[in-house]
Design brief:
373 residues; Peroxisomal Thiolase, Chain A, domain 1; single chain; alpha/beta; 31% helix
Length: 373
């Protein structure tokens, strides 16, 4: 598809265990204040699980509405009636379904299918905001990243003037126990790219981005996808799929690898992901840009991570600050320029990665637009 229009982030917001809004989250990253805590009642074996559950008396749905409201109120839009909604989620209404099933004593009678399906989030948002149209992407941990890719295509084609991307996943028993069965859960906050890593932390969160053609200080410059299908749960050990997605993003952006200043890595804290992604980055970026994973602070928000981490990447560009990698002590891949302290640096280009089961990979390039005056 040929590009006809430039795409910009008009407004953005996020909420997760590290903070109830984007500023709180970024402040937690700079202060190394992890939102990962041990909770009871999630693992079927009765042990404590270190997860990223949002600490709030408000429901997950309410927190999601708050972020969407903030984006709308800070935009030039009166409402979303002419805005296309693109949702990215890996579990949809799974947590709501679990609650209803447990509360009913194991009965499925009376369960609202609109609330338990994969499109439950778009259904819920449409009930309140009445979007022009909507679609849901569910591709595991690349769900909201693929939503962003689709949003960019819609805007470049001139199919609409504004697209709201919402990445959202809430904690569910099924997800926590599923990852536990894979043997990849950590009992402490994860330490991506550390040789002494102990695993990942399942988390919940919401990322919201309003995209459009009106110029702003952050441009959505390029996107790249790949599907290497190496294994149902493991990426290619040499990071071939990751490399292809990153190169496709650079090509779409029309830039060379050596201009990237900062990479927000997928960085889950698992051996398979960290090794594959690290190899891909070292191979493609010999100039060694700053690399960081924020999942030790936010947890792995699954289908929401692409949107949340793109918000974080945009804020890093805006503020000229790269957060340190929390508790990184023994870097496994020495060629990676892993931020071991907060860096204050003028940046123009950032890359954000999201990789998923089955070899589904997405990379996104952002550009900070400087005032020529």
């Amino acid at each position: 598809m040929s590009k006809t229009k430039d795409i910009y982030i008009q407004q953005m917001g996020a909420s997760c265990c590290a903070g109830l809004n984007r500023d709180e989250i970024f402040d937690s990253l700079l202060k190394s204040k992890s939102g990962i805590k041990k909770h009871e009642g999630f693992l079927i074996d009765g042990t404590l699980s270190a997860i990223g559950k949002i600490d709030s008396f408000k429901s997950f749905e309410t927190l999601m509405f708050e972020q969407v409201d903030e984006v709308l109120n800070n935009s030039s839009l009166a409402n979303f009636s002419d805005t296309f909604l693109v949702v990215g989620t890996s579990v949809g209404g799974m947590s709501w379904s679990e609650d209803q099933f447990i509360q009913s004593g194991g009965s499925c009678v009376g369960i609202d299918l609109n609330r338990q399906s994969i499109y439950s989030i778009s259904h819920t948002l449409n009930q309140k905001y009445n979007f022009k149209d909507s679609i849901t992407f569910s591709t595991a941990c690349t769900s909201s990243s693929n939503a962003i890719v689709f949003a960019k295509e819609l805007l470049e084609a001139g199919a609409c003037e504004h697209v709201l991307v919402v990445g959202a996943d809430s904690i569910s028993l099924t997800t926590v126990n599923g990852f536990n069965a894979l043997g990849v859960l950590s009992s402490e906050p994860s330490t991506p790219f550390d040789s002494d890593r102990t695993g990942m932390n399942v988390a919940e969160g919401v990322g919201v981005l309003l995209l459009g053609n009106t110029p702003s200080d952050i441009r959505l410059l390029g996107v790249g996808c790949s599907s290497d299908a190496h294994n149902i749960t493991h990426p290619h050990p040499e990071g071939n799929g990751a490399k292809l997605a990153i190169q496709n993003a650079l090509d779409d952006a029309g830039i060379e690898a050596n201009v990237i200043d900062y990479i927000n890595a997928h960085g889950t804290g698992t051996i398979a992901n960290d090794s594959a992604e690290g190899r891909a980055i070292v191979s493609l970026f010999p100039h060694a840009p700053l690399v960081g994973s924020t999942k030790s602070i936010t947890g792995h928000t699954l289908g929401a991570c692409g949107a949340i981490e793109l918000v974080i990447s945009a804020m890093a560009l805006k503020k000229g600050l790269v957060p340190q990698n929390f508790q990184l002590k023994n870097p496994e891949i020495l060629e990676l320029n892993l931020a071991q302290k907060n860096h204050s640096v003028e940046m123009e280009f950032a890359l954000s990665n999201a990789f998923a089961f089955g070899g589904n990979n997405v990379s996104i390039v952002l550009q900070k637009v400087y005032d020529e005056n």
